[in-house]
Amino acid sequence: MKNISEENYLKAIFILSGKNDQEVFTNDLALYLSNKAASVTDMLKKLAQKKFVSYKKYSGVTLTEQGKKKAIDIVRKHRLWEFFLVNQLGFTWDEIHEVAEQLEHIQSDLLIERLDAYLRFPQSDPHGDPIPNRNGKFKQTNSKALAELAERSNAIVFTVTDKPDLLRYLSKIGIALGTKVKVLEKIPFDNSLLLQLNGKNKIQVSADIAKHIKVQL
Amino acid sequence: MKNISEENYLKAIFILSGKNDQEVFTNDLALYLSNKAASVTDMLKKLAQKKFVSYKKYSGVTLTEQGKKKAIDIVRKHRLWEFFLVNQLGFTWDEIHEVAEQLEHIQSDLLIERLDAYLRFPQSDPHGDPIPNRNGKFKQTNSKALAELAERSNAIVFTVTDKPDLLRYLSKIGIALGTKVKVLEKIPFDNSLLLQLNGKNKIQVSADIAKHIKVQL
DNA sequence: ATTATATTTTAGGCAAATCTAAATTATTTT
DNA sequence: AAAATAATTTAGATTTGCCTAAAATATAAT
Questions:
Q1: Above 0.90 for ipTM, yes or no?
Q2: Domain for residue A80, yes or no?
Q3: Tens digit of pLDDT for each residue in A111-133?
Q4: In 3D, which of B151, B149, B136 has the Cα closest to residue B70?
Q5: Do A111 and B85 count as a contact with CB atoms less than 8 A apart?
Q6: Structural domain tally of chain A?
Q7: Which of A63, A84, A110 is where one domain is finished?
Q8: Exposed e or buried b for every residue in B103-112, given b needs 16+ CB within 10 A?
Q9: Is A37 near strand C, with its CB below 7 A from some atom of it?
Q10: CB proximity B39–strand C (7 Å threshold)
Q11: Domain span holding position A167
Q12: B4 contacts A4? CB cut-off 8 A
């Protein structure tokens, strides 16, 4: 159970660098990990020395092949455990994140292979994110943030970031994976959205929330 | 995932102090945990300060009520996970220990309650050891070390300590939980035993091994 | 192109958990 | 009961991952 911190950094870099492997910046990492920028710099140097990231002072980091492989492995574990928690143990959306954060660091290839098989090789986790297979392959989905949709467009809720508070709130206002949303109006002042859910009830969501909801067109 | 080290110490003290809560000594702990005695002393002071153990220099430790409760909780988690690994994921005897050592430190009461229910509240783990219930209660079994049996006595193998090497060896020579053993002969020179298994094949085991096998009369 | 602001890095420290080597206390032997 | 041996503790270091405050660099604004 060593290297938990390193693993969290690699995963964070992977997630923040998005589909195109963009550089990730110190402050963003610090924010995401709830650490201070100085600590991030320290760790980036260590990760660079171990060849898990390419790092040049003042210009952000990217994962090396090796680092990306590790990161994907952790994401795989995280999502498999989330699937297990929801589908076998009856956890709800908002209860799983914290536990999966811990379980993802359990070190045992055998365990993950067996778990994967036990769950019948699921393709996506309870948030709708793809679960990489044992070779690190997973299908990218072409999704957008809800916040980026134009007025009048229709879409289907696809992924939601892993924040318990948000998840609880969304459940409450009726947004779940698979919910059909139509953007009725974008309020220019604060970029909040007026949505219609499944062709029925109308709700208002802030721009901030809309950024955290991914949809498929 | 903090306090892993503390948890390991508490569990070790619990296990080494046996049924009668005997004091546990620094060197024994050091040996069991693969640490140095000096490190053990350091940690004992810290645990004493937190009121998890009663510790007086040079005279061993015992768990306080509080400490014992924590220790039992960890044992409960360890054994539940072992049960899960064997009965759901198809692990064998000798593959589970290392993984359970990690899983036992996952921090989530909800997880353990759900897992317990999912497994239908098992009473004992794959080694035959009792699994404490949510209140820390479990039935003590009156078992003895095989090494302590007199010649001609019969017994049933009940528990085996958690060392992968030993477990693999025992599987190989035909000893499993539930195996009936009869002590045919005790060799006085080295205290090794000549055993008959299930009324059939005869095997020889060293005193060292016989100490690690618990039997029921 | 300077200046102001924001970001990132360096320097120096701290707490946890471990270690080695030396000192202390207990136990066993003669 | 003194001496020898064994067990335990203390003292002082090391490593990891984090921190604050100050310095350096990059970016934006005038």
A1: no
A2: no
A3: 999 999 999 999 999 888 899 99
A4: B136
A5: yes
A6: 2
A7: A63
A8: bbbbebeebb
A9: yes
A10: yes
A11: 143-216
A12: no
